[in-house]
Amino acid sequence: MKKLHSPILGMLIMWGALVPAVEAATVSLIPSTAMKLPGDTLILDVEGTGFTDNADGGSFTTTWDPSVLILKSVSGGLGVSIVNPPWDTQFVTDSDESDGLLDTVSVATSTFGGVGPDFSIATLTFDVIGLGTTTVTMTDDPLFGGWVAPGTVPIPVTYEGAVVNSVPIPAAVWLFGSGLLGLTGIARRSRVVSAT
């Protein structure tokens, strides 16, 4: 019986070493995919999930294709709304609104012990200005670092972006719509003729 336990224990240890570690802390853009037309507004929510070490603050940068999207100006400011609470200290910088780079979104809380494992961070608002596909990505801010737990302990974070497709309405839709209008007109004319 003793010999049987050794190989099983050895296999369990090897299996545990081969299974990759799962990073739980994730910052995501919601929705992760979107279909939009030029002229539409795109709203992406930034959400944090799985922070086993409660986040005390963090900062990130965001990039996208500036020929497809432009960060919307809202009330003379950038198209970024920070969720407060829990983030009672924040700043956003963007040196050039047309370059497809949001330089810094930085948030912090004065809540003792951090904000918990799952939280809302911000809402980004874009105008769709062109055709094509772009991925809106996020990374740790190179100047201010990434996310920290109370006591400025770094938290490794995985970022999940969003894919945005901007496509024109196909010509077939316009032809179908005009055909339906024509049939409706013929049907109305037939009713008027038969009623008289």
In short:
Helix content is 21%, strand content 39%.
How would you describe what is shown here?
The chain is 21% helix and 39% strand. It is α+β, with helices and mostly antiparallel strands and 196 residues long. The strands form two sheets. Strands 2, 4, 7, 8, 10, 11, 12 and 14 form an eight-stranded mixed β-sheet that branches. Strands 1, 3, 5, 6, 9 and 13 form a six-stranded mixed β-sheet that branches. The longest helix is centred in the last third of the chain and has 25 residues. It is elongated, with a radius of gyration of 26 Å.
What's the arrangement of secondary structure elements?
Blueprint: H1 2-18, E1 26-30, E2 33-36, E3 41-49, E4 57-63, E5 69-71, E6 80-82, E7 89-93, E8 101-108, E9 119-128, E10 132-140, E11 147-149, E12 153-155, E13 158-160, E14 162-166, H2 171-195
Parallel strand pairs: 1-13, 2-14
Antiparallel strand pairs: 1-3, 3-9, 4-8, 4-10, 4-11, 5-9, 6-9, 7-8, 10-14, 11-12
Annotated CATH architecture: Sandwich
> Which value, in Å, is the CA radius of gyration?
26 Å
Report how far apart the termini are. Answer: 101 Å
Pick out the low-confidence regions: 8-22
Overall 3D form: elongated
One letter per element, helices H and strands E, the order comes to HEEEEEEEEEEEEEEH
Summarize model confidence as the mean pLDDT.
82
Percent helix, as a range, is 10-25%
Based on helices, strands and strand pairing, what is the structural class?
alpha+beta
